[in-house]
Amino acid sequence: MLDSTQRNSLSKALSSRLGGSPWHLLGIALLATLGLAACSSGCATSGTSSEAKDPQDQAAQAVEISDKKGLAVATLAGGCFWCMEKPFEKVPGVHAVISGYSGGQEVNPTYRQVGSGRTGHTEAVQISYDPEIVSFDYLLKVYWRQVNPTDSGGQFVDRGSQYRPEIFYHSEAQKIAAEKSKAALSESGRFSKAIMVPITKYLSFYAAEDYHQDFYKKSPDHYQRYRRGSGRDRYLDEVWGKDRHLEPPKPAVKAQKSKKSSAEELKKRLTTLQYRVTQQDGTEPPFRNKYWNNKEEGIYVDIVSGEPLFSSIDKFKSGTGWPSFTKPLDDKHIKKNTDYKLGYGRTEVRSASADSHLGHVFDDGPAPTGLRYCINSASLRFVPKAQLEKEGLGEYLALFR
To answer: Which of 121, 142, 193, 266 is the most buried (most CB within 10 A)?
Structure first.
């Protein structure tokens, strides 16, 4: 139960989150008296009633900017998105944090629609970040310190599926990292109840109305009143204590930049075979190359740029004499062309950033993709698992745990 001071604070907090009508405030007062409060659905915030927006364009633009700048994207739900923006915006390496809605089927939902609890969406933030400065693992550490991970029915005073916590992964690497992070939190003994946060494949994100973006900056008084009354900080201080605040992330040692080098520079850096394969679309001999039979755990990067391309986890014995993989680490790191050098069409694979010729992809591979990426060893440099952190590839360590 809440004492009178807490109830008053809670009522003020919720009225700033809602439209403030007498009926809403009466309902809030009754709920606060019982020590139970829910953030009512869909009322405009503190004097703002407009819901005009084009969230799809804004969300698509955020992802497009991330791709152009070589940034990564994370989508995390932790209850009221007002309270999730600020902690991530303070993290070095984070370029943008957008409040919005994710996890449902409704296209372009409004705050009012999501607040009804009938769209399947939950309030979430989408984070654009530089993985060379801050890792997804670090963002997860920040995330756990903002939520009650044992509560799947909402967060703090905000109740309902529209406030459920959830991690939406954008890649297999993010999925594995999230699963490992969740398991570590569960095993830490910090929580007596089970960790209930689902880890879900990302499908869509719709930016919330403009008045919700950076709300803690636009309406600091209302934001602080709501946050204090919600009980979020009180809970987080009790659970985390001095561990609530993290040390800033240590900048990763950056992989070799993918700027296109001149032919003269490349001839000095590469062996004759490496140059012929990557720059002149050559093919090395089968079975007489460096990695065709390599069984060590690690990541294969572009020999020219250091761009991460393939993982040993996806490598398989094809019998061809060349390194073979079922899939790349991330599709955006490669590009495909059709070549007719042998008189018929084949799908060539090149690195997206340095434009190095890597090999070809065929549809005779094993499950789960049915693909065989047949890659020249001369196009690759292998980074063992033990060296990933040092090489600025620490985010991929989660693949091997």
So the answer is: 121
